[in-house]
């Protein structure tokens, strides 16, 4: 099964080797048929502590690293090559 990749903004980098990434998605409201934004925060593993608050980050699913961390960030150089 392929691993999911999500893109979002880093909202916190206070933990050691951990960043919190806010991922937004849009959906259509079932009754009002209006576009609504929903967001969710993911704790992700950042081995090199290279991401700072406000950075755009891509995260990928991984095996559990701790109680909250089930995602890891893709290295910055890999993101530059993908674009």
From TrEMBL:
Keywords: Endonuclease, Hydrolase, Nuclease, Ribonucleoprotein, Ribosomal protein, RNA-binding, rRNA-binding. CDD domains: Ribosomal_uS17. One of its GO terms (cellular component) is ribosome. Gene3D superfamilies: Nucleic acid-binding proteins. It holds the Pfam family Ribosomal_S17. SUPFAM superfamilies: Nucleic acid-binding proteins. Part of the 30S ribosomal subunit. Belongs to the universal ribosomal protein uS17 family. One of the primary rRNA binding proteins, it binds specifically to the 5'-end of 16S ribosomal RNA. This is Small ribosomal subunit protein uS17. It comes from Peiella sedimenti.
